[in-house]
Design a protein that fits this description.
By secondary structure, the chain is mainly alpha-helical. It has one domain (2-66). It is built from 4 helices and no strands. It has helices spanning 2-14, 19-37, 42-46, 48-66. It is elongated and about 40 Å long.
Amino acid sequence: MISKFLDRLSEYLAHRKGLLPILGLLMILVNLLIQFIFPGSFLAITNLFLHIGLIAAIFGLMLAWAL
């Protein structure tokens, strides 16, 4: 089940190599907006979208390089 999912995900991302880095950059920009719109919120204090976006962008670049 997991192996079929990974195979399908790999096939999908092989044709869209820039998708994960772009999503990561968008999440980083969302984090920047959250800092100004909701300055005291949990998301602004923890920088959650910044960290997830950075991980997604780096993972996407490594995956694009491998595929």
